[in-house]
Amino acid sequence: MAAEDEDARESEGLELPTRFRRGKPGARPGIGISDLETMPAPAVRVPITCIDYSPDRVEKHRITDFDAFIKSRREAWVKVRWVNVDGLNDPETIRALAIKYGLHPLAIEDMMTTGVRPKLEPYPAQDGRPPHLFAIVRMVQLVDGALESEQTSMFIEGETVLTFQEAPGDIWDLIRQRLEKAGSRLRELDASFLSYALIDAIVDHCFPVLEHYGDRLEELEDLVLDRPDRGTINEIHQIKRELLLLRRAVWPMREVVNTMQREPHECVSDVTRTYLRDVYDHLIQIMDIIETYREVGTSLTETYMTSMSNRLSEVMKVLTIIGTIFIPLTFLAGVYGMNMAIPENHWPMAYPTFWGICVVLAGGMIYWFRRRGWL
């Protein structure tokens, strides 16, 4: 995701996430358990955190003994379990979780394939496992002033939520803090409400990102009007590209949220669907702001081109006036120097008189240009 996250993973001995691609035409769809067994595993397991909570208690721990975690069962007091995996380059971890929670091969393929469009897929019960929902959303962040979009996968099964990120680092710290507070609504409600809170945090984080672009567009507007240059138009184009990236991340998430709130599913409670309406409204608002900023960027581009054209016209006007002033002076100098006897040999004031005529002629033309409004 971010450059500093990549450096941190390399320093810990972790490889960068593998970019999985779709299978060849006609190949078996999905990524099954046997396929994961043949994939190379990293030297160090990806970071995994688990948060178990109920209205009266919460426990957060980083999984160090993964095999013991897979074999264990949650304690009786645990109402909701949230497992977060920071990385997709560990097939062994994904395989173990897929077996434990009965993840569908098609969902695993989408999760491990980069660049998948945000989507929501329900999967029925199979092999004694309850049905689950699979969602892909895009988490956008500003890293060193540039927009980064990370694919985040989410499984909702009963009272368990699994989240898979491409790299360590997210925007869910506030959610973790809310889980630690006794009496919070997150602690009282089910797993689907946790998934709503995670999606809501991703959506709400778009607003400070848009605020950054709004402030920058205002600064660029002043630059375009006062002192436009090549760097200004390059930055305008960069902002327009990043706004397009943001639009591609947000637009499909409207379908995800709309489907979750409108289509009944046993993994999503009625209370959660009520709160999802607010997320959908935020997505509509974000899309309106994105379209407005894109129009502002297009307007700034046109203003820049107009400003540069006007600037070029001013330069050409000055050069044309200078050339016009020197045309009669060049004519007089040519006639005086090439076609007549040297007057200075007969009249000492001839040379100053010539320059006087030139000055008067140039001054008269400048005065006339000013009267006409050309200067």
What order do the helices and strands come in, and which of them pair?
Blueprint: H1 3-11, H2 33-38, E1 48-54, E2 57-62, H3 66-71, E3 80-86, H4 91-101, H5 105-112, E4 119-123, E5 132-143, E6 146-157, E7 160-165, H6 173-180, H7 185-188, H8 191-204, H9 206-226, H10 230-262, H11 270-338, H12 350-371
Parallel strand pairs: 3-7
Antiparallel strand pairs: 1-2, 1-3, 4-5, 5-6, 6-7
Helix pairs in contact: 8-11, 9-10, 9-11, 10-11, 11-12
The number of E-state strands comes to: 7
> How large is the share of residues in beta strands?
5-15%
Cα-atom radius of gyration: 34 Å
Helix share, percent = 55-70%
User: Helices and strands, in N-to-C order?
Assistant: HHEEHEHHEEEEHHHHHHH
Mean pLDDT: 83
Number of helices: 12
Biggest sheet architecture: 7 strands, mixed
Oligomer: single chain
Tell me the distance between the termini.
Answer: 56 Å
Structural class: alpha+beta
Brief write-up:
By secondary structure, the protein is an alpha+beta fold. It has helices at 3-11, 33-38, 66-71, 91-101, 105-112, 173-180, 185-188, 191-204, 206-226, 230-262, 270-338, 350-371, and strands at 48-54, 57-62, 80-86, 119-123, 132-143, 146-157, 160-165.
Describe the structure in your own words.
The model is unreliable at 1-19 (pLDDT under 50). The chain has 375 residues and is α+β, with helices and mostly antiparallel strands. The longest helix has 69 residues, at 270-338. It is built from twelve helices and seven strands. The radius of gyration is 34 Å and the shape is elongated. It starts with a helix and ends with a helix. Helix 10 (230-262) runs antiparallel to helix 11 (270-338). Strands 2-1-3-7-6-5-4 form a seven-stranded mixed sheet, with helices on both faces. The protein is 56% helix and 15% strand.
